[in-house]
Design a protein that fits this description.
single chain, mainly beta, Beta-galactosidase, Chain A, domain 5, 9-stranded antiparallel sheet, 44% strand
Length: 326
């Protein structure tokens, strides 16, 4: 049975939600972007330990990126002939949207055969988020923890009177557990966005060279130097992260056609990020790259639903026994 409760996170001043049973535990910060900052399975790290938990945003956990995930050129976007400045409280926002460090309102907590936590955040006229994104809407996110792993459901409602351009992504930091040579990944990707030195896309998507295709085999995290948007994911495709005792399979609904693979060598974690759109999606769309942008457009009064799933599978063999040679 799973238990769920609220408590103060000691030394931080924020409330956290704890969801656990005898095998696994997650901890969520509703006031800091509704971020799952902690996930252990039978005492082993799945998500990396934060370097500094007081730095809220996109440096640890599973940040939620909405309504404009990834980078935006010059912190502005063009929509229906009008240029908008993506600002929040007067500061320009160049990356990862508006809600990553904002408080969510918890609307549901349930324990039992699974553990459930649901929360929401709204963008409404007159508030701080509307300043840079004047499209009234509500985002609801539900986490469900079960023996199978962690499942996320997302719901976006357009509460305005005009079409609403947006994208959605999650940015999980998986743990290297202190040795990136013994953590492996396999992602079924065959195409990548062409980007400039600032990691902003041109609109072109290229087939990967045979020797660079991630679906050809396993890669140690230590061997990868990536901050790249890949294309071609579908609901029946999963990426896998494998440690010596456990695998996590990352899958998502069909609207998540892209994933970002980010493997920084100066952090104790790495990322496989399901993403509905490209980097700088609204601006690519304005340039005529309609399909390449992946931009989602929600009609007034309509809703958008999606899911991301982290499926856990335990194994007894060592990494050397279970991971094929590259």
């Amino acid at each position: 049975m799973y238990e769920v409760w609220k408590e103060q996170l000691e030394g931080f001043g924020y409330e956290q939600i704890v969801m656990k049973n005898e095998h696994q535990e997650i901890r969520i910060l509703p006031e800091a972007g509704f971020n799952v900052w902690y996930w252990h399975y039978e005492g082993q790290e799945i998500l990396m330990k934060p370097v500094d938990i007081t730095v809220i945003g996109t440096k640890y956990g599973i940040p939620i990126l909405f309504p404009t995930p990834n980078r935006m050129r010059n912190g502005e976007y063009l929509w229906k002939g009008k240029t908008y400045q993506m600002t929040k409280r007067g500061a320009r926002v160049n990356i990862h949207g508006l809600v990553k460090d904002e408080p969510f309102t918890v609307t549901r907590l349930e324990g039992g055969e699974t553990a459930v936590c649901e929360a929401k955040i709204s963008i409404a006229k007159g508030d701080d988020l509307y300043e840079g994104y004047p499209f009234p809407c509500t985002l609801s996110v539900t986490y469900e923890l079960s023996d199978a792993g962690l499942h996320m459901d997302m719901r976006v409602v357009n509460e305005g009177t005009e079409e609403m351009p947006f994208g959605f992504a999650v940015h999980p930091y998986f743990s290297k557990r202190g040795d990136a040579t013994q953590v492996f990944m396999n992602a079924p990707v065959k195409r990548a966005y062409v980007a400039d030195a600032g990691l902003l896309p041109s609109g072109e998507i290229r087939e990967l060279e045979e020797e660079k295709r991630a679906d050809r085999g396993w890669h140690s995290i230590d061997s990868l130097y990536l901050d790249t948007v890949f294309r071609g994911m579908t609901e029946d495709l999963e990426s896998e992260v494998r440690w010596k005792d456990l695998s996590v399979y990352v899958g998502a609904s069909d609207c998540y056609r892209n994933i970002v693979i980010y493997t920084p060598h100066d952090r104790p974690g790495f990322c496989i990020e399901p993403q509905t759109c490209s980097t700088d999606a609204i601006n690519l769309y304005a340039k005529g790259y309609l399909d390449e942008s992946g931009l989602l457009i929600l009609q007034p009064g309509a809703e958008f639903r999606s899911w991301v799933n982290y499926r856990v599978e335990k194994h007894e063999k060592t990494a050397c026994d279970t991971v094929p040679s590259i």
